[in-house]
Each structure stands twice: as structure tokens, then as C-alpha cells.
Specification:
The protein is mostly helical. Helices cover 58% and strands 5% of the residues. It is built from 14 helices and three strands. It is globular, with a radius of gyration of 20 Å.
Length: 308
């Protein structure tokens, strides 16, 4: 399947779960979600594309790792639309510009500095303490968690942690491997030329369920402690490369431990306890040392996020 075919199919099938969503203005990275599923299917099922599809199947194995960067982008954009249903964007251009500048700097220092659609960072207008990363590089951070940050280093710690999830492709790993197996098998055995309405509906449902797998993990259940540990370890490395103090991550977790309410619907529900993460970090970094932030950096932080 060539790039255009893959993009057309995945953008329609994968985004079925988000059909009908009216996206806020200015969110260009989530635009273009209104393609006609019927038209996309017609284009994909063109006989001239069948040979390409069959050749692709011959080289594809049945694991999440075989999802291409382009496919990951469209999956991530769908997840972003789902997240935006729960947390609305925060209409503060200056604050969002600052978060993006900081996030882009951290992303460039990660082990995955480039993604198909690029990294994008957005503040969400919610009092909940939370931060989420969709596959492909869409990172969402709430006003609630920003208010827990006492310095730019602390904000960097949150963003670097989410970038760590992206570079490790933790979101894609939330998809049940059986779903990908079913989808690829259907493509290989049926062949685009023979797809009837029922077969296409089954395949579309498979991708819809994949979106549901990731959304439920990010919003409802959260990642495993091992995934959170990996993201924390990645954050430490990224922060060091950029010049931020990784102790700010520990400091941030200490702050959150005091503010999180047990049994809450936000960070407390979707992440391991701050104390367990602190213990894991201290095994790597040693005892906590108070963060010392340069005055010019602190002034910049206060100027940009004072009103959040």
C-alpha cells in the first residue's frame, strides 16, 4: 500500500471514534478530520492499488511496531480529538506559545526528535492535575498541573516525561495486538478488490477499537508502573541534555503528593503514586537536592504562566 492509500484508509477508519467532533479553531494539528469514509474506501479499493496492498502485506508482521510513523500520526490525531472532548483548550496564546517553545526544545533533545507530524503542545482548561501524550507527538497539559509547578524546570519535567512516553511509543503499545493481527490478516486474505460492506465494516471497527484501547489507557486506567518508570528515566536524560535540573521532577512529584486526592479522577487515577515514582528516581539519582533555578529563568516562568 503506498503512502497515500495508507493515509486515506487510516485517517478514515481510525478516526471513526471521533466522528462528528467540532475541533476548536487554531488547532491545525487536528484539522482535516472530516473526510468521507465512503470516498476514502472507494479510493483505496481502486484496482490499481491492489497489487501495492498485497506487496505491503507480505512484509508486514503482526505487532504494533509495524505501524508506520505516518499511521502513528493519524492514530495520534484521533486520540487528540478524543482527549479534547474531555479537556477543552486553554485560550491563552502567550502561555501556549511558551509551552510549545519549551516542549520543542525538550523534544529535540529526546531520542525521537522528529515524528511524522511533529511535536505539538497544548494547555487544557481544566483544574484537574494531569498531562497526556498521544502517539506521534501530541502533548496535552492541564492548567491544574501547571499550577503545581514552581519553576520552569518543573514544567520541563512534566513535558519531558510526556515526550518520554512518545519516544517509547507507549500509546501504541496500549493497542491489543490481536486487533492489529485481525486487521492485517483481513487485508492480506480478503484483498481490497473483494471487500464487501461487511468486511470493510469489520476492518473499520478494528481500528476504531484500537483508538478506544489507547483512549481508555490514557484517560481511564493509565500506564503500568514500568512504563511510567521508563518515561521518568527518559525525562531525566532529556532534562540533563537541555540544561534543566532533573531534581525538579522529584520536586514536582513531592508537590503533587500533597495536592492529589486519593481516589480522584485525574493524575491520581492514571499514574502510580508520586511516592513510588520518587523512590524509583532516587535509585537512579540519589537523595533529593533542592533545585536552584537561575533568576532569569524564574522571571520568564512567572511572566509567562502567572495568569494560568
Amino acid at each position: 500500500m503506498n503512502g497515500a492509500s495508507r493515509r486515506e484508509f487510516l485517517s478514515a477508519a481510525g478516526r471513526l471514534a471521533a466522528a462528528g467532533i467540532l475541533l476548536p479553531s487554531g488547532l491545525a494539528f487536528l484539522s482535516g478530520c472530516a473526510e468521507s469514509l465512503g470516498q476514502v474506501a472507494t479510493n483505496l479499493l481502486d484496482p490499481t492499488r491492489i497489487d501495492s496492498l498485497k506487496k505491503t502485506y507480505a512484509t508486514v508482521t503482526k505487532t504494533f511496531e509495524d505501524i508506520t510513523p505516518e499511521q502513528e500520526y493519524y492514530i495520534g490525531r484521533t486520540i487528540g480529538a478524543v482527549i479534547l472532548q474531555k479537556y477543552k483548550p486553554y485560550a491563552n496564546e502567550g502561555a501556549n506559545r511558551y509551552i510549545n517553545l519549551l516542549g520543542q526544545s525538550l523534544a529535540q533533545a529526546s531520542d525521537l526528535p522528529e515524528t511524522y507530524g511533529g511535536y505539538h503542545f497544548l494547555i487544557q482548561d481544566s483544574e484537574e492535575i494531569n498531562a497526556l501524550a498521544a502517539p506521534g507527538g501530541l502533548v496535552f497539559i492541564t492548567r491544574g498541573i501547571l499550577r503545581c509547578c514552581q519553576s520552569e524546570d518543573a514544567v520541563a519535567a512534566v513535558l519531558a516525561h510526556e515526550v518520554g512516553h512518545v519516544q517509547s511509543k507507549h500509546g501504541l503499545q496500549a493497542i491489543q495486538k490481536s486487533r492489529i493481527t485481525s486487521a492485517i490478516t483481513a487485508l492480506g486474505i480478503e484483498g481490497a478488490k473483494t471487500f464487501g460492506s461487511s468486511a470493510l465494516a469489520d476492518l473499520t471497527s478494528t481500528f476504531e477499537d484500537s483508538i478506544s484501547d489507547i483512549s481508555k489507557t490514557l484517560i481511564n486506567s493509565g500506564y503500568s508502573r514500568s512504563f511510567e518508570r521508563q518515561a521518568d528515566q527518559a525525562a531525566v536524560k532529556i532534562m540533563k541534555r537541555v540544561g534543566y535540573d532533573p531534581q525538579a521532577l522529584v520536586e514536582m512529584l513531592m508537590k503533587m503528593a500533597k495536592q492529589l486526592k486519593p481516589g480522584g479522577l485525574d493524575f491520581a487515577k492514571t499514574h502510580p503514586s508520586p511516592q513510588s515514582r520518587i523512590e524509583d528516581l532516587q535509585k537512579e539519582m540519589g537523595p533529593y537536592k533542592q533545585v536552584s533555578v537561575p533568576p532569569v529563568r524564574q522571571k520568564r516562568f512567572q511572566r509567562q504562566l502567572a495568569s494560568v
